[in-house]
Each structure stands twice: as structure tokens, then as C-alpha cells.
């Protein structure tokens, strides 16, 4: 049995509760926590912003990438999409698919989570057919055979749970229907669109295993199921079906917005929501040390009010090991004239294991991002 060294203590001047009613002489709160906001934590009150560094050397730094600038033509194969970040338990890609896949894909390395950043298309898989559109998540169980027919060019964020699978988070006290009702999850159907693609033509399946691709050829279309039953299936969820947990008096941690969980990481979704209205409540993300997890944020749509110079299609990467939080302009605005509504949509990946930045990212990085927390004169 294990138990963290944990007992509440207090020193000096501190707020009564986290994220609210800060001391006037120290308005900068910093959370030092463990286990990705689920473990023991301490809240410090500082006279200066914890992100107010004047210089930074060495590889551990906040990083920003503009995926809109990624080079390379669209490909009908997801396995040709460049890997952007990764570790032994997770692979993070952005795939541009503009034409119908002339073969099937199958990932034998783990479950895939697709997030449709733009475009629309028809997806066919072992389980049937459904339409994918902007804002959809689609979970593909490991070794499912599938293909896409875009009706408009698609940009798809792909997050692989390497040697693992996706599950839903335990929603605890708020119940199984909070955040989104599982009844919102759609599954592929054996419908007329699916039956129309039965054929005796030659088809190939590109199978990825150990990040290498093998090709299996069939003298017919393997997507020929006439029915199925069971409790394993791909599922679709659009971010518009997410009804986030909120508190008008307390800024909830990112973990409250968890959408999917894998063995060594979580995927969270930030969707439009009212800003905290209580006069003493913190009204934007708090400064924090999430020292057990690397944090990756993909910006999908809206006004990203806690960050400067961030647009849709960009990614920020904050490795574990340093304090991060809102930019100075956003923090000042939250003190003087706070917003009443946050209208951004973003997908966050938090990994328990350190992520490596792939070479494809080197040409699209903003090297000055580390300095974006400095006060502008």
C-alpha cells in the first residue's frame, strides 16, 4: 500500500481556498501539484508572476508550433502523415486527406483517436458507415480496417494510444451523464451507403505494426460485414455535444474537462463556457507546475483568451518541469476588465511520459514563444 506524504499546512499570508480571494499584496497564485491535478498540491502566493523570467537557456522551454505551415502534400494514407510528437505510449500526427483512400488502413499498434479540424467525409470501416465533419472525435479500436472518402479536404489530428486503448473518464460524483451523455456517442451503421460499397474488386489493406507498414491484398472488399453485435465499436462525439462542468465561484482544473483516457495519457476538450462571475474567483487558467505530465494544446477555433498571437491550427507544448500559465496581457485583463464568456475550442493532450519533438516540427516553431510571457514596455 502507498500513501502520499500529505497533510494540510499553512505559512505566511495565503488565501483561504485555492483560486479565489487572493491576498492584495500577492495576487499571483501558483499551484504545485502531482499526478495531473489529481494528487496532493500546494498553492503559493507570489509578489511577481511565476512566468516572469528575463532569459532562458537550455532545451526545457515552452514551445509553440504553427501546423498551418507544415510542408508536404496531402496524402490518401494516414501512415504518411508526419509524426509531430511522440513517446513509447503515444503518437501525435496531423493528416491532410483530400482524396478518397484507394485502400483500407489498419493500426495494429493501438487505438487511434481522430479529431476533425476541418472538412467532411464519409468513413467506412469493419462496423459500417458514418459521416465525419468538423469538430468530430472518432475513436477507432485497434486493428479496425477503415477508409475515408472526403467530400471536402480534411485536416485530421490523430492521437494514437500506442499498445493501449481509449476509455471514458470516471465522472465520479457528477454522474455518468455529466459532461456528455453516453447516448450522444454514435456508431457506424450497416446502411445502404455501406452495402453499396460491397465489391468483388481487388482491395489492399495497409497494416501498421511497430510503426512499419505491411500490405495485405484481397480479391474482394474486406468491408463486407452484413451485421454485428457486441460491446466493442468505434464511436463518434462532436465537441458541440460536450456540456462542460462549470462553477461560477471556482476555476476548475483542466482535468475536469477530460474527454478520453488512455493508459498513460488523457485527452481533454475545452469548449465555449461562461467565465467565473464571483468577484473573488480566478477568471482564467491558473499558474501551475504540472510536474508529472507534458502538456500539449491544439487550438481548433475561437478566441484563445489566455494566450497572445495564437490562431487556429497552432500547437503549444509545455514539458513538465516549470511553471506556466496565462500571458501578462491576459492576466491583466482578467484583473481589470474580465471577460464574461470564453469562446475557444481546444484539444489538450497530457502525457505521463516525456514527449519527443519530431523533425517535422522544426520548421514550424516560433523560437520567440519562450519570451512571450515577458512584460511589454
Main attributes?
377 residues; mainly beta; eleven-stranded mixed sheet; six-stranded antiparallel sheet; 2 helices
Structure commentary:
This protein has 377 residues and is mainly beta. Helices cover 4% and strands 36% of the residues. The protein has helices spanning 192-196, 328-336, and strands at residues 28-33, 41-46, 63-66, 83-87, 90-97, 104-107, 110-125, 128-133, 136-140, 145-162, 203-209, 212-218, 235-238, 258-262, 265-270, 273-274, 287-290, 294-301, 314-318, 341-342, 345-351, 356-357. The strands form four sheets. Strands 4, 5, 6, 7, 8, 9, 10, 11, 12, 13 and 22 form an eleven-stranded mixed β-sheet that branches. A six-stranded antiparallel β-sheet has the order 3-19-18-21-15-14, with no helix packed on it. A hairpin with a 7-residue loop joins strand 1 and strand 2 (41-46). The protein starts with 27 loop residues before the first strand and ends in a 20-residue tail after the last strand. The mean pLDDT is 92.
Amino acid at each position: 500500500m502507498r500513501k502520499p506524504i500529505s497533510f494540510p499546512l499553512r505559512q505566511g499570508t495565503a488565501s483561504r481556498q485555492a483560486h479565489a480571494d487572493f491576498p492584495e499584496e500577492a495576487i499571483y497564485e501558483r499551484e504545485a501539484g502531482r499526478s495531473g491535478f489529481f494528487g496532493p498540491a500546494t498553492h503559493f502566493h507570489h509578489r511577481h508572476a511565476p512566468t516572469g523570467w528575463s532569459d532562458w537557456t537550455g532545451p526545457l522551454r515552452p514551445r509553440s508550433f504553427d501546423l498551418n505551415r507544415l510542408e508536404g502534400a496531402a496524402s490518401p494514407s494516414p501512415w504518411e502523415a508526419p509524426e509531430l510528437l511522440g513517446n513509447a505510449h503515444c503518437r501525435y500526427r496531423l493528416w491532410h486527406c483530400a482524396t478518397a483512400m484507394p485502400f483500407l488502413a489498419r493500426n495494429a499498434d493501438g487505438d487511434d483517436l481522430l479529431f476533425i479540424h476541418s472538412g467532411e467525409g464519409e468513413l467506412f470501416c469493419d462496423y459500417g458507415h458514418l459521416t465525419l465533419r468538423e469538430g468530430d472525435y472518432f475513436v477507432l479500436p485497434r486493428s479496425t480496417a477503415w477508409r475515408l472518402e472526403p467530400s471536402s479536404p480534411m485536416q485530421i489530428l490523430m492521437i494514437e494510444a500506442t499498445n493501449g486503448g481509449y476509455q471514458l473518464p470516471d465522472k465520479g460524483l457528477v454522474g455518468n451523464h455529466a459532461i456528455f451523455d453516453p447516448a450522444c456517442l454514435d456508431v457506424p451503421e450497416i446502411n445502404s451507403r455501406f452495402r453499396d460499397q460491397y465489391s468483388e474488386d481487388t482491395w489492399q489493406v495497409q497494416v501498421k505494426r511497430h510503426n512499419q507498414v505491411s500490405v495485405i491484398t484481397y480479391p474482394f472488399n474486406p468491408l463486407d460485414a452484413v451485421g454485428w453485435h457486441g460491446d466493442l465499436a468505434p464511436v463518434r462525439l462532436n465537441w458541440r455535444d460536450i456540456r462542460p462542468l462549470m462553477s461560477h465561484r471556482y476555476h476548475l482544473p483542466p482535468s475536469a474537462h477530460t474527454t478520453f483516457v488512455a493508459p498513460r495519457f488523457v485527452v481533454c476538450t475545452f469548449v465555449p463556457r461562461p467565465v467565473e462571475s464571483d468577484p473573488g474567483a480566478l477568471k482564467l487558467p491558473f499558474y501551475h507546475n504540472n510536474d508529472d505530465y507534458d502538456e500539449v494544446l491544439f487550438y481548433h477555433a475561437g478566441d484563445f483568451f489566455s494566450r497572445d498571437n495564437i490562431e487556429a491550427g497552432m500547437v503549444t507544448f509545455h514539458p513538465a518541469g516549470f511553471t506556466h500559465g496565462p500571458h501578462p496581457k491576459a492576466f491583466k485583463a482578467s484583473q481589470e476588465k474580465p471577460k464574461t464568456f470564453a469562446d475557444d475550442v481546444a484539444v489538450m493532450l497530457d502525457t505521463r511520459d516525456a514527449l519527443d519533438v519530431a523533425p517535422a516540427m522544426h520548421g514550424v516553431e516560433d523560437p520567440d514563444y519562450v519570451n512571450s510571457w515577458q512584460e511589454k514596455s
